[in-house]
Write a structure and sequence with these properties.
By secondary structure, the chain is mostly helical. It has 9 helices and no strands.
Amino acid sequence: MVCIHALTSLLHVVPSRPMDIHKQWLAAIARTRDKAAFASLFQYFAPRLRAYLLRGGADAIVVEELVQDVMLIVWRGAAEYDPRRAAVSTWIFTIARNRRIDRLRRARRPEPEVGDPHFTPSAPDAPDEHTAETRRAERLRLALQQLPEEQATILHQMYFDGRSQREIAASLNIPLGTVKSRVRLAMSRLRETLAEEVP
């Protein structure tokens, strides 16, 4: 300990507190996609995330998947971190908690049974019903084309790719609130457009 203090005083270096170094790593990732900083952040937080998730009752395989998922979100969303709102560790563990909750919700959905009538093909539509359905689908396709690109992209990822709003926010590197407001605006525009076209 004496050696470390002596060395730092000789070099005129003030040792960083752990929280400061975490912010520095995150800032480097946000600024320049610094892989060395990410490796340091990963090395520090991955074991702590594993312990936290295992204490929460997740099994080892799920834990590994969640840790990878959380750290990928950190890598993609580093620029969204706001040091005024939370410490780096709080931010990362909140992401882990939310991903674990998402995972539990998905796991609780019941598996469909083979004989379930909901999954039995219905009788073919009458020709006039099929024509009306085709017209509705075409109107919707044209209405989607009229949306601003950022709104259409989010709707496509939600409804065609099956991604959650949180996943979309991470992949587009934008705040979750922005995703939600764009979805609201897009749905409102679609309703207006489709209402205007009803004969």
